[in-house]
């Protein structure tokens, strides 16, 4: 008997069962497949990109032009906002809810510092939507309470 040999083990590949999240993402991808096909890119050569839909082409061309000629100070602002998100991830150790809330909150605060007018508009719209949703919830609970 050799000292360095080990008995051969019989191994068998077992695929992990899909989780609910994986099933949900798979279902969502299949549902959205016709819509994403509209925006598929056709590469004619390495430097020229054609887009099938006019809506998608407008969106991509505006974004491309914006990134080619950004406003003054755009990239430093983007760096600060991104860094705030990374700091939020660092501070959110442990809880999954913290990992969602902290980066989003810190990035929102950073964005609000650089773009105060847009932040006010978004806050007003979000406040109105939140009020409408709470009113709808109150009406639904009240109707359930009166029915019983």
Question: What does this protein look like?
Answer:
Its main location: mitochondrion. Component of the mitochondrial contact site and cristae organizing system (MICOS) complex. One of its GO terms (biological process) is cristae formation. The protein is mainly alpha-helical. It contains 5 helices and 2 strands, in the order H-E-E-H-H-H-H. A two-stranded antiparallel sheet has the order 1-2.
Low-confidence stretches: 42-49
Query: Strands of the biggest beta sheet: in what spatial order?
Result: 1-2
Average pLDDT figure: 81
Number of separate helices: 5
Q: What proportion of the residues is helical, as a percent range? A: 55-70%
Distance between the termini: 82 Å
Compressed to H and E, one letter per element, the order equals HEEHHHH
Q: Rg from C-alpha positions?
A: 26 Å
Find the count of extended strands (DSSP E, 2+ residues).
2
> Can you tell me the overall shape?
extended
- Biggest sheet overview: 2 strands, antiparallel
Which structural category fits the helices and strands? mainly alpha
The proportion of strand residues reads: under 5%
């Amino acid at each position: 008997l050799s000292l360095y040999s080990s008995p051969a083990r019989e191994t068998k590949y077992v695929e992990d069962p899909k989780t609910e999240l994986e099933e949900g993402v798979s279902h969502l991808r299949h549902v959205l497949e016709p819509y994403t096909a509209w925006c598929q890119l056709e590469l004619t050569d390495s430097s020229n990109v054609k887009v099938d839909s006019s809506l998608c082409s407008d969106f991509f061309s505006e974004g491309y032009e914006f990134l080619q000629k950004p406003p003054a100070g755009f990239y430093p602002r983007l760096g600060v906002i991104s860094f705030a998100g990374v700091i939020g991830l660092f501070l959110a150790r442990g809880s999954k809810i913290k990992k969602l809330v902290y980066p989003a909150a810190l990035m929102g605060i950073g964005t609000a510092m650089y773009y105060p007018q847009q932040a006010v508009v978004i806050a007003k719209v979000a406040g109105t939507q939140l009020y409408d949703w709470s009113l709808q919830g109150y009406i639904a609970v009240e109707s359930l309470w009166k029915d019983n």
